[in-house]
Amino acid sequence: MPSTLTDKYNRIHNYMRISITDRCNLRCTYCMPEEGMKFLPNEQLMTDDEIVQIVRVAAQLGIRKIRLTGGEPLLRPNVVNLVQKLSQIEGIEDLALTTNGLLLANMAADLKSAGLKRVNISMDSLKPERFKQMTRGGNLQRVLDAVERCAAVGLTPLKLNVVLMRGFNDDEWDDFIQYTIDHPIIVRFIEYMPIGGRQQGWKRDYISLEERLKGSRWHEQAIPVDKPRHGGPAAYYRLPDAKGQFGLIHPVSDHFCDTCNRLRITADGYVKPCLYWSDEFHLRHHIGDDAKLAEVLIRSLEAKPLNHEMAYELSGQSLSHQPTTRTMSQIGG
Fold first, then answer.
1. Residue 168 or 330, more confident
2. What are the respective helix, strand and coil percentages of the chain, to the nearest 5?
3. Residue 47's CB: how many other CB atoms inside 10 A?
């Protein structure tokens, strides 16, 4: 069935990211404050049945790929059962999950058996102490153990997400690229984005990925390669004879809005047509009415602008819309 989720710029939407909790067991510096986070009470979170109904309707409209996010999605009770239910929905061809990896090693086999296809793991440093500092308490070895476990049970291709921040971890660029030589893993560098009212500190910590690539000792050896299946918006490279690859996701310096194919569902049941802007449409209110859910999903695309204008924050240009005040953990990334 062709997708009916097409916006006024003729972008076809077949990908939905769903935050299944706003809670997290880390406090990463680019994602949420160290203290003072107010999480949603349980009754405001979507139930498993509500998520399943939304995905079933979305699949009828042409959604083919689902990614579960958070917060930390593995904190959600009975997440394996939810994965199993979603994997059985007709029309869903790819079911993936993004996690910080702390709980993943013990759950990987069950998630794979339940129907999960792939995992992206956030890992912003290869140095244990720095990792602990950037995540405010994370244990790097637990994440590395999860990487090995995912490879063992077949949750592949495995991607590591690295949010690059000037003065924090940009000096590990070459270390991460070297990691791809001996490991069949895709490392994806992601530009730091000004989400959730972080504009002032963001300007100080932002660094362009193209700038960093040109300063890399691997720059001349990096060979552009075709995107892997489900490669997303990244531009991919490989070092000669490397087992893995690395990719650049640059939403700020070279936005890919013209090919955007995704909608986001927040943990409390709102659809966001764009990560950056404040526009939201309440889905949960219409649970039980498939026709109305479909109407809201289609109508949300009418509010989707041509692009997000994140780069305007660097130059001080005025914005055409109101940026979201939700943090990345509240939106689902």
1. 168
2. 35, 15, 50
3. 14
